[in-house]
TrEMBL record:
<feature type="domain" description="DHHA2">
    <location>
        <begin position="179"/>
        <end position="305"/>
    </location>
</feature>
<dbReference type="InterPro" id="IPR004097">
    <property type="entry name" value="DHHA2"/>
</dbReference>
<dbReference type="InterPro" id="IPR038222">
    <property type="entry name" value="DHHA2_dom_sf"/>
</dbReference>
<protein>
    <recommendedName>
        <fullName>inorganic diphosphatase</fullName>
        <ecNumber>3.6.1.1</ecNumber>
    </recommendedName>
</protein>
<dbReference type="GO" id="GO:0004427">
    <property type="term" value="F:inorganic diphosphate phosphatase activity"/>
</dbReference>
<dbReference type="Pfam" id="PF02833">
    <property type="entry name" value="DHHA2"/>
</dbReference>
<dbReference type="Pfam" id="PF01368">
    <property type="entry name" value="DHH"/>
</dbReference>
<keyword id="KW-0479">Metal-binding</keyword>
<dbReference type="InterPro" id="IPR038763">
    <property type="entry name" value="DHH_sf"/>
</dbReference>
<dbReference type="InterPro" id="IPR001667">
    <property type="entry name" value="DDH_dom"/>
</dbReference>
<keyword id="KW-0378">Hydrolase</keyword>
<keyword id="KW-0464">Manganese</keyword>
Length: 306
């Protein structure tokens, strides 16, 4: 039986591309591994897979009795529901260390970089395995996506160097132009059901015993949401109630202005004031410079709810 490489629920491009790249690496090293996914793919991820000739990884929700590698997360709430019944062989991630535990030793590659794809590239280099052209292209796109084309505060020199090296392998002459093309795909929100937008890049967190959901939509112009903010706010209120969540935040991130408007529904009226020093007005607040959920949104919010 093969092992599986799987990212988090509501998978993003990094989660999917890293699973694909890791499965090839492990299989090449003699450990048969299959990429899988825990949900439907976003338009951006479908664009990347189509551009580099990949099929969607297998949709697999149950892993009881299976061996698996966890990529792009280490929080139990974001992984398979039956993760406690699986054998975790390794974790490859660039987020805070979560609460997944194991009963046996495991391989861990956890680095403070902008993308799990960057760590996967390091693993290929460590094992001296040549990266196929299509995998290089997919990893490059994942890094550009997660680092918001190097604008995110999570971006490191390692991410930039990996993109440059992967672009050369993939034969991409202008990786920045390709990054902008990806974000144009990401910005095509008109006509998309509101619930699909809210859940497109959504993660749940356990913060001091409180279930908190945080979604993010990154676009090249925040004006794209002008006519739908009321609908988005109503839907995150529904998501909060349906999931019995303490709070739900939806970040509307403008990658050109380099900031985010937060739409907030919470049991705490002063949630953002305590966490970020910025109070909401009618459940909304713009904060300059906020681009990263993992580095700028989650840590202060978790501290405020501890």
């Amino acid at each position: 039986m093969p092992a599986y490489a799987v990212g988090h629920k509501v998978p993003d491009s990094d989660s999917i591309c890293s699973a694909i790249a890791l499965s090839y690496l492990k299989t090449t090293l003699g450990e048969e591994t299959v990429a899988a996914r825990l949900g439907e793919l976003s338009p951006e991820t479908l664009y990347i897979l189509d551009k580099f000739g990949f099929e969607q990884p297998e949709l697999k929700l149950s892993y009881a009795g299976e061996e698996l590698y966890i990529v792009d997360h280490s929080d139990r709430i974001q992984g398979p529901d039956d993760i406690d019944d699986a054998t975790i062989l390794g974790i490859i991630d660039h987020h805070k260390l979560g609460d997944i535990t194991t009963s046996t030793p495991l391989e861990c590659w956890i680095r403070p970089v902008g993308c799990t794809g960057t760590i996967i590239k390091m693993m290929y280099d460590f094992h001296q395995v040549e990266i196929p052209v299509n995998i290089a292209g997919a990893l490059m796109c994942a890094i550009l996506s997660d680092t918001v084309i190097f604008k995110s505060p999570t971006c490191t020199t390692a991410d930039i160097k990996c993109v440059e090296a992967l672009a050369e392998i993939a034969g991409i002459d202008d990786h920045l132009a390709l990054g902008m093309e990806m974000f144009k795909v990401k910005s095509a929100v008109e006509g998309t059901p509101v619930r699909e937008l809210v859940m497109r890049d959504f993660k749940d967190f356990n913060m001091g015993g409180n279930k908190v959901g945080i979604g993010q939509l990154e676009v090249i112009d925040l004006a794209l949401f002008d006519n739908m903010k009321d609908e988005l706010q109503a839907d995150i209120a529904a998501v909060k109630a349906e999931g019995e969540r303490h709070s739900v935040i939806l970040l509307l991130t403008d990658i050109m202005k380099e900031g985010s408007e937060l739409l907030v529904v919470s049991d705490n009226d002063d949630l953002t004031e305590k966490a970020y020093g910025a109070a909401t007005v009618d459940g909304r607040v713009w904060i300059d410079g906020i681009m990263s959920r993992k580095k700028q949104v989650v840590p202060p919010l978790q501290d405020s709810l501890a």
